[in-house]
């Protein structure tokens, strides 16, 4: 993976490199972050007194150590899905990504799709050790996944930051784990709701640039080494709006995790994950919701929906974008229910009744679980 030059990317030190090399590397990261924060057109700094210089060096040293701890808390994930997993068709049977250690008990936060219908999970520490892990939670609503190491990792967990406090254009550290672990600087270019084509919606998603392709479960850290987001995907327009397209990454904000963390550890998912599912992949085009794909053996397929259908209304309520469709679909507390879709097909309007199901009930699990 070779980030664009504008990312000011730095390669992580090789395994076994001495501490001095790491410190020099981390210092470069801090200096790069300082340059980005100042901006290309920043005025020349004023002459500092000896006391000011010492204070500045102390701040840089604190950031350097915090970023070093953050990078060390990022691990690789190697996942094998169960034999009959529906998700194999889109995600593959064997998957690789990253996660961030967030607990002294070996709890690792990652992106949920990486461990969806997982049969086997191994963590890859920074020194190359493979440590077996178990799935603790998969949360459909937030998109998070939790796994727990079954042997000591020997590293310190990363503290959780405040996603809402990340400012526009703030320099951030983008860190991935595994055999090809890497990190680089990114900047926050927008914060806004995000609707995924796979019946997914969150508020306050973080969008960064430049884009990196090793995003699955990667950690996004602020200058204090606090985790503020978990990498989900590459997007074509990180800035949003009607401006020029800018490739980047979408991160799920850790602010969504804090209210449900105890629930995830106790139940394996949040209550919000139990909601109606149709098995549709849709996109927004010109203020309309277009069907592009149907999940195999899904309620939508059974009801006769087809690719290129346009969804006009859900239960009599008009929808013009993914967010409004999802909010209408997820109303109430009964995921298993009949949903009436008004669609337009080949210029004709028609109504179809779809029996929605609880998505969590359709997932395959390892035998004995």
SSE arrangement:
Blueprint: H1 19-38, H2 50-72, E1 74-81, H3 88-91, E2 94-101, E3 107-111, E4 118-124, E5 130-138, E6 144-149, E7 171-176, E8 182-196, E9 200-209, E10 219-221, E11 227-235, E12 248-253, H4 261-267, E13 276-277, E14 280-285, E15 288-294, H5 299-303, E16 310-314, E17 317-318, H6 322-329, E18 337-345, E19 348-358
Antiparallel strand pairs: 1-2, 1-4, 2-3, 3-6, 4-5, 5-6, 7-8, 7-10, 8-9, 9-12, 10-11, 11-12, 13-19, 14-15, 15-16, 16-17, 16-18, 18-19
Helix pairs in contact: 1-2
Structure overview:
The chain has 369 residues and is an alpha+beta fold. It folds into 3 domains: 9-72 and 165-255, Thrombin, subunit H (Beta Barrel); 74-156 and 261-267, Beta Barrel (Thrombin, subunit H); 274-362, PDZ domain (Pdz3 Domain). 18% of the residues lie in helices and 36% in strands. The chain has 6 helices and 19 strands. It has helices spanning 19-38, 50-72, 88-91, 261-267, 299-303, 322-329; strands spanning 74-81, 94-101, 107-111, 118-124, 130-138, 144-149, 171-176, 182-196, 200-209, 219-221, 227-235, 248-253, 276-277, 280-285, 288-294, 310-314, 317-318, 337-345, 348-358. The strands form 3 sheets. Strands 13, 14, 15, 16, 17, 18 and 19 form a 7-stranded antiparallel sheet that branches. A 6-stranded antiparallel β-barrel has the order 1-2-3-6-5-4. Strands 7-8-9-12-11-10 form a 6-stranded antiparallel β-barrel. A hairpin with a 5-residue loop joins strand 5 (130-138) and strand 6 (144-149). Helix 1 (19-38) packs across helix 2 (50-72). The protein is globular, with a radius of gyration of 22 Å. It starts with 18 loop residues before the first helix and ends in an 11-residue tail after the last strand. 42% of the residues are buried. Mean pLDDT is 86; it is low at 1-47.
């Amino acid at each position: 993976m070779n980030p664009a030059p504008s990312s000011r990317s730095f390669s992580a030190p090789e395994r076994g490199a001495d501490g001095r090399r790491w410190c020099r590397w981390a210092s470069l990261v801090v200096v790069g972050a300082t340059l980005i924060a100042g901006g290309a057109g920043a005025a020349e700094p004023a002459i500092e007194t000896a006391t000011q210089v010492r204070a500045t060096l102390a701040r840089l040293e604190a950031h350097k150590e915090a970023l070093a701890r953050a990078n060390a808390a990022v691990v690789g994930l190697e996942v094998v899905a169960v034999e009959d997993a529906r998700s194999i068709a889109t995600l593959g049977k064997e998957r690789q990504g990253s996660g961030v250690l967030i607990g002294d008990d070996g709890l690792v936060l990652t992106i949920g799709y990486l461990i969806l219908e997982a049969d086997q999970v191994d963590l890859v520490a920074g020194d190359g050790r493979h440590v077996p892990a178990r799935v603790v939670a998969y949360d459909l609503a937030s998109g998070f996944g939790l796994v727990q190491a079954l042997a000591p990792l020997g590293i310190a967990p990363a503290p959780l930051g405040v996603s809402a406090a990340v400012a526009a254009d703030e320099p951030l550290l983008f860190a991935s784990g595994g055999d090809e672990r890497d990190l680089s600087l990114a900047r926050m270019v927008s914060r806004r709701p995000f609707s995924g084509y796979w019946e997914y919606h969150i508020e306050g998603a973080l969008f960064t640039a430049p884009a990196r392709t090793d995003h699955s479960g990667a950690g996004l850290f602020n200058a204090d080494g606090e985790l503020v987001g978990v990498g989900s995907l590459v997007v074509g327009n990180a800035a949003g709006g009607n401006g020029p397209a800018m490739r980047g990454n979408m991160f799920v904000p850790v602010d969504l995790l804090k209210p449900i963390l105890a629930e995830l550890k106790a139940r394996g998912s949040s209550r919000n994950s139990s909601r109606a599912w149709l098995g549709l992949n849709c996109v927004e085009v010109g203020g309309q919701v277009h069907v592009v794909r149907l999940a195999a053996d899904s309620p939508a397929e059974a009801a006769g929906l087809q690719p290129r259908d346009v969804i006009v209304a859900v239960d009599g309520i008009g929808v013009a974008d993914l967010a409004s469709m999802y909010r209408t679909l997820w109303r109430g507390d009964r995921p298993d229910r009949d949903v009436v879709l008004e669609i337009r097909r080949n210029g004709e309007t028609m109504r179809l009744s779809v029996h929605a199901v609880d998505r969590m009930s359709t997932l395959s699990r390892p035998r004995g679980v």
